[in-house]
Every structure is written in C-alpha cells, then in structure tokens.
Amino acid sequence: MFFDMQENSKKEKIKCYGCGALVDNIAGQPHKYLGATQGCWNLYGQILAKEFGEYNYPELTHRLTVDTYAIQHPGQPCRQSIQSVNVHLISLYFIFIENLSGKEATKKMAEILAKEPKFKWLEPPIPNGQKNIIDVLAATNQEEHEKLVKEWAENVWDCWYSKHRLAIESIKDLFL
Ligand SMILES: [Zn+2]
Predict the structure, then answer these.
(1) Phi then psi for 11, rounded to 5 degrees?
(2) How many whole angstroms from 64 Cα to the centroid of ligand 1?
(3) What is the rounded distance in angstroms from the CA atom of residue 69 to the CA atom of residue 162?
(4) What residues does the ion ligand 1 have nearby, CB within 5 Å?
(5) Does position 70 have pLDDT exceeding 60, yes or no?
(6) Could you tell me the pTM of the whole model?
(7) If pLDDT is split at 50, 70 and 90, which confidence band does 153 have?
(8) Per-residue confidence at 126, pLDDT binned at 50, 70, 90?
(9) What is the arithmetic mean of pLDDT over 31-59?
(10) Are 152 and 133 in contact (CB under 8 A)?
(11) What's the average model confidence in pLDDT over 47-73?
C-alpha cells in the first residue's frame, strides 16, 4: 500500500501488482486470470475505449496494446494465464521480429491455439517493463497514442525476449 501525500490526491494510490503503475486503490477483482488491480484495469478500459472509438480501431496498435497489457499482467500460474502469456508473446514475436501486421499476428495466434499446444509457465522478467499504461494515457492525439503504445510494447517485449528468447523461439518453431 502506498499513500501519495504529496500529490494531495483524494484517492489512495496503490502500485499495480502487474505493471507497477501507481493507480487508484479501488476494490474489485477485474479479471479471472490477468493479474491487474482494478484501478489499472479501469485505465486499460480507457485506452481500449479510445482505440475502438475516436481512433477508429488502429489494428496494429490495438494488437500491441492487448498483447502488452496481457504479458505485463501475467497473474498466477494456471492453465489460462500460461496460455495467455505464451500466445501474446508469440504475437509480439511475429510483430517485432518477423514484421508481420496486426492482422497476420492475430491469425498466427489462432493457428497456434488451434493446435492446443502444451505451454509452460514463463517466469515474468523483473522489472516487467519500465513503462506502463499511464505512459500511454498521456497521449493527446492518435499519432501520439500509436507512438506511445509502440514504445511501451517494445519496452515490455524486450524484457521478456531477453529473458525467454529460447523458449519463445521454440514455441514459434513448433507451429510454423
Ligand atoms: Zn497494471
């Protein structure tokens, strides 16, 4: 628990146990297996609302947002969280390493899932990115938003890829 007196904020702030962002301390368990605090989840909702609304669904950026949020909030090891982290990492692999489009990366994820692979739990890197959705929320227009999402995604992806490069490549190789 952390109370930011200097900000003189009315709401108590806590550190999201997924991404480390300082968010409003709001009660609630927002998602079955993603490890996010309610305050962080609400901010994620604001970003998704921008992407589906005023930004008219920028496909690659939206892919990056969803993948990055998932791997930055891996939760506890269980079948769904293990699958989620693995599949979103594969998507980012195809985008950043193989230069696929958002649409192609989504298709790859579906192809891999259809084979019902046995994924392994990958221990999250520490830190799990130095950027988080609060950095993305600073955007005031679409161009800025897309730039900030890309920087956030690259930052978190680099943490995972440098720790789990062999594991990520071996999953990808199994299904090509
Ligand atoms: Zn978070």
Answers:
(1) -95, 145
(2) 15
(3) 18
(4) 16, 18-19, 36, 40
(5) yes
(6) 0.91
(7) very high
(8) very high
(9) 94
(10) yes
(11) 97
Spacing, Cα 43 to ligand 1 middle (Å): 9
Whether residue 2 has pLDDT greater than 60? no
Question: How far does residue 16's CA lie from ligand 1's centre (Å)?
Answer: 5
Residue 40: how many other CB atoms lie within 10 Å: 30
Secondary structure (DSSP) of 7-25: TT-SS-EEE-TTT--EEE-
Using one digit for the tens of pLDDT, what is the confidence trace for 79-89? Answer: 999 999 999 99
Computed on alpha carbons and rounded to an integer, the radius of gyration of the chain in Å comes to 16
The closest of 60, 121, 111 to 86, measured between CA atoms, is 121
Cα 141 to ligand 1 centroid, rounded to whole Å? 22
Q: In sequence order, which ranges of 4-141 are alpha helices (DSSP H)?
A: 38-52, 59-72, 79-96, 102-114, 133-137
Reduce the DSSP state of residue 150 to 3 states and report it: helix
Q: Ligand 1 centre from 34 Cα, in Å? A: 10
Ligand 1 centroid distance, CA of 134 (Å): 9
Distance 73 CA to ligand 1 centre (A): 6
Residue 19 CA to ligand 1 center (angstroms) comes to: 4
How far is 70 from 68, CA to CA, in rounded Å?
5
Q: 147 — phi, psi (to 5°)?
A: -65, -45
**The two structure tokens encoding residue 33:** 């297996």
Backbone torsion region of residue 49, taken as left when φ is above 0, otherwise alpha when ψ lies between -120 and 50, otherwise beta: alpha
